[in-house]
Amino acid sequence: MAVNQQTGTLVVARFASVLDVLDRAALFVACIGLGGMAVVQGWQVFARYVLNDSPSWTEPLALLCMSTTMMLGAACGVRANRHFGFFILVETAKPKLRTALLTVSSLIGAAIGLMLAVWGAKMVGDGWDYPIAGAPFPQGIAYLPLCVGGLLIAIFALEKVLIPAPQQDLTAE
Question: How far apart are CA 3 and CA 7, in angstroms?
């Protein structure tokens, strides 16, 4: 029995460490997207007002950077328990109800994430053969952050169901 429990603990710890790496990678890419959006918009302003030659690729690229930052940031927020929650209701509930509310909240977040991932994948596939006006990449790439971010939201929300956080005693405060 002790061997099975140790094996289970090792599997959970390994799973959590893999998700830690995934979370950090998503946050890193979101930060790159935010910086990229600032650089692209800065170039747009400079080219328009100084060079009097506004490039057409800057708007679609800035939107891609923004949606990447938004979706990956939302996924990281789900993992950090800062997104998709009934926070006031959970904090005032009794411990058993609190556990149920946290589980329901995580399942709702996972369902929303899966919906975003599935529908995002469909839009990626539907738009892949069409070019974005003014940019050298396919229209489907604009929906890729929706797909990836939705999948990460679902994974991070399901983590909360499979590996619940330790209960804290709110009456001790």
Answer: 6
